[in-house]
């Protein structure tokens, strides 16, 4: 049987026809969809892909390379969520579609092997750390500069060139496991924290306004649970984050401690499953989610702090991912209700630590899975704005993805490079001294894109600035390229 005769979907969780019917094809999503902005093709827009899903349910299009390409080109940035006036849950639709594709579509051998390589390495911190040592030698020996200068990389396949361009700068300290910061002496006074441990209600979104809409995290929502300080906060270390951005986890822990929290790092945690969830690898995602639930349940924390946007969006949807699992369905919902981006936790706390002046001009980059998937938009800005001396700058076209999108910049390098170039130029137009974000993938993409156009600028996690202000550090102490 050929691919063109094979039904697009089978009976195991196809995209919901009810959710598909929510789309009225109004076109509000077109201006915020990166791939539609790139190519202007209807089939590469959210409403076009939804229409393909509808045709697939009716068996009017088949499981073939042409149809699959339009779903593969989607970044999954979820900008359409915040621009849709009808509240279409495109996130659930595209993830259901991708799970069908990865389970049933026989990709070309080279594509299959490349994807297997990614999922055999990136979700495993131990394996990533094994790669960190040769990468450190490659960078510190000067070999990387030499190879890039001699254009030898042009001999590699485009996807391997993209991986090399995205490789993070490895510090010697990054070769070792996460080091928990020295505890900060807490004030004796005990305060009470009001923090919702239930998902927020889902108001209708305002077209084209980032940070408003379904799943609203712009405000901590009722019901309210009063938690006596110190708040027990479980810290998610992530995969790429813990190996290549160890300093971000350390800064996160220090800030939480300085604000009076007890920070717990569950030893059994691994990958949360975000990369797999967003890429259609459903079985792997479920296995990693179960392990994460086991680890954080054992830690008995009040709330779970996440400093990587992709991880946060995936963990908040554990209830949906594990809805068929009789042993984990209820547990997944309870754990998901505790998950918060670290900015959501910090804005709900009464500040304790003194903010020292930090004279720096900072461009704030919205990570897509933070502003669109989680609706976290104002919280990091409010925390940064409270730092004396800082000048917070907005980036033009902030709703448009930088091209990272999990592993998209490795699977679709041409589109990712064009989006990255646009974002880098918009960042530079702000005249900022540094750019900050809330996701390691964005950090790597922004660094790569700035380097590609011959510009250098520090790319940081916003929590590093808050940590620097609390510690009394100056930009020269941490703001380098």
Describe the structure.
The chain contains 25 helices and 10 strands. α12 packs across α24 and α22 packs across α23. The strands form 3 sheets. A 4-stranded parallel beta sheet has the order 4-3-5-6. By secondary structure, it is α/β, with parallel strands linked by helices. It is 47% helix and 9% strand. The longest helix is centred in the middle third of the chain and has 18 residues. The chain has 4 domains: 102 residues, Alpha-helical ferredoxin (Fumarate Reductase Iron-sulfur Protein, Chain B, domain 2), CATH 1.10.1060.10; 67 residues, no CATH class; 157 residues, Rossmann fold; 119 residues, Rossmann fold.
* Total beta-strand segments: 10
Structural class: alpha/beta
Number of domains: 4
Tally of contiguous helical segments: 25
Question: How would you describe the shape?
Answer: globular
The CATH architecture category of the largest domain equals 3-Layer(aba) Sandwich
N- to C-terminal distance = 54 Å
Report the portion of residues in β strands: 5-15%
Global Rg: 22 Å
Q: What are the low-pLDDT stretches, counting only 5+ consecutive residues below 50? A: 183-193, 198-226
CATH topology of the largest domain: Rossmann fold
Oligomerization state: single chain
Strand order of the largest sheet: 4-3-5-6
| Largest sheet data | 4 strands, parallel
Mean pLDDT: 86
The CATH first-level class of the largest domain comes to Alpha Beta
Which percent bin holds the helix content?
Answer: 40-55%
